[in-house]
Each structure stands twice: as C-alpha cells, then as structure tokens.
Design goal:
mainly alpha; 8 helices
C-alpha cells in the first residue's frame, strides 16, 4: 500500500505541493492522499473479488448444464458471499475517515493497516484457487460439496475480516 500512497503523493499538482508548505495544511493534504490511496486500493480489491464472483456465476451456469441442480443453493451462497465482500469494500467510506478522525494513527500503525488490507488480495487469490477446485469437481462430483463449502467459508472469512479491521486500533467495530 505504501506504493499506492507514494503514487498518489507523487502525482500531486504544483498547487498541492506548494500548499503543503503552509502550516497545518500539510496534515490536510496527507489525509486527502491517504483517502485517495485507500480508494484506489479498495477499488482494486473489489475488482478482484468481482472477477471471482463472475467466475462463480459462470460455474453456476456450467453446473446447470451438467444437471447438478442439487448444488445450486450452496453455489449461490458462495457467489453471494463473494459479492457481499466486493460490495462492502467498494461502498465503505474511503480514507478510513472514521478511523483517522477519531484516532491519531502513526506511520507504523498505518503500515499495519495497509498490510491487513493487502491480505484481501491474497484472499481473492485463495478464492480463485478454490473456484478452480469447484471447476475440477464438476465432472467428479465426489469433491464438489466440500469445494463449494470451502469457497463459502473463504468468502465469509473475508467479510468478517473486513468488519473487524478497525479493531486494530480502536478496539471496536467500524
């Protein structure tokens, strides 16, 4: 995430760079940069989960074609969990505004928060692998129920992790 923050900071126009020299204004610019970097990261994470949701939807179509209707409720639950996470992260307020406004956060804590959020990229990859297991199991039904349960579980864990992220510094929910 520091790369995203740096990208936003480096792309400031001349006015913002000049205004950042004004006492007290620097904190405002830095907060705006954090919000912009956060927005960019959240949109990217949401896009990755959206890709997995589309893949899950395509797998549902494949399952219908193969006559695997008995698994559709479970597969729909998996797709809904993936979409729920994507929607939550895409529509959450940017810049950790509540967190930054209520709690003074230092660079080390900010780095921890960004590292926490980067874990969502890994979660998207893990869900992608789990969807691959479903795809492989469509023609070998023996592993299909467990593969679907795994996707539901991974997506639910992502939703729960996102809901707990503010606890890193506040001890409570967002």
């Amino acid at each position: 995430m520091t790369d995203l923050f740096k990208k936003v900071t480096d792309s400031q126009d001349v006015f913002k760079k000049l205004a950042s020299k004004i006492p007290g204004f620097d904190g405002y610019i830095e907060r705006q940069n954090r919000r912009a970097a956060d927005k960019l990261m959240r949109e990217t994470i949401a896009d990755r989960f959206e890709e997995q949701w589309k893949r899950a939807s395509a797998l549902q179509t494949d399952m219908i074609s193969e006559g695997l209707l008995s698994y559709m409720d479970d597969m729909e639950r998996a797709a809904i969990q993936i979409q729920t996470f994507s929607d939550k992260i895409r529509t959450a307020s940017y810049g950790y505004s509540g967190l930054f406004d209520a709690v003074k956060i230092n660079e080390d804590e900010l780095a921890q928060l960004y590292a926490f959020d980067q874990g969502f990229f890994l979660a998207a990859e893990e869900i992608g692998r789990a969807l691959g297991n479903i795809e492989a199991s469509i023609y070998d039904e023996a592993g299909l129920p467990a593969a679907i349960r795994n996707v539901v579980s991974l997506a639910r864990q992502s939703v729960e992790a996102f809901e707990r992220r503010s606890e890193l510094f506040t001890g409570g929910g967002e």
